[in-house]
Amino acid sequence: MRGDDRQQSAMWSYISPEQRVPSDHPLRPIRTMVNEVLKDLSPAFRRIYSTQGRPSIPPEQLLRALLLQIFYSIRSERLLVEQLDYNLLFRWFVGLNSDDPVWNPTTFTKNRDRLLDGHIAEKFFTRVLALARKDGLLSDEHFTVDGTLIDAWASHKSFKPKGSNDDRPDDPGNPTVDFRGQKRSNDTHASTTDPDARLYRKSFGTTSRLCFAGHVLMENRNGLAVDAELTEANNRSEREAALRMLKKVARGQRLTVGADKGYDTKAFIGSLRAFGATPHVAAKVRRSALDGRTTRHEGYVVSQRKRKLVEEIFGWVKTSAGLRKTRHRGKRRVGWIFRFALAAYNLIRIRNLARAAA
Which residues of 289-326 are buried (b: 16+ CB within 10 A; e: fewer)? Predict the structure, then answer.
């Protein structure tokens, strides 16, 4: 007998979101790790929230929601809140019951500065690394450094001469701008949308972009990001950031450092050797700072193969995490979300490694 195509609204539901999520869903092991990390961060949350007034939305729920935004490539916080309203999987991961009201999208805006001032992204990243270290997934000897450009939330039209008083554009929403023949540089111009962004091109033959430079230090055993920095984009930022990150992990022991040809300079190679690191940098065809004493060893070949894993990190961060063009303004905010996105990548990587080992 054919059933009737009728929908009758139920008055009560006796099935919780926990029961609706399959036991083998890929978010389950990630949620377990995230809950462990957030439990360790509870003292930090206590310091950045007042003990008086009305209870806020728990910061743990805000961070879980931001992780979902990264995992599922949700392009705005307004769409994220919309998903939280009707998506039971999202409600379960964040910690909302089926009948709990969702938040206003401006909740993230109001709490972002508080989480930024509390260095929560850095602490979250560190706790995730502690989970990987506990499982023996990190190498303390072999590393790779690399950098990438992250487009700023600003257009070329906003790149104007410093001190310009042109307050009457013909079209305030999309003004007509003709900068052909003008000499524009970061010394004389700045973006009115994001003053922290810099006009930069990574190589000859490519277009100049208003952007930031994101840097990653990766361990070579399993391709996990162990440190990150976001700086202004310039010709020196990659090598300077690499040295700062490497000095944190050196601790007086011998290291190998893989990198691409952009790091093959006498100054960088000399700085590595000064604090006991062996440069496994891809050698230039001409005028390389390396010689056969380094490149002839088998370990150099292994480092050249392993260093390509860092491109997987950048590829995921730019596509899935949506950082090909950032949605935030200012170096501090972009740096916060950059480090938080790398923590999200590490969570997925740790889950996949655990599954492969099982």
Answer: bbeeebeeeeebeebbebbebbeebbebbbebbbbeeb
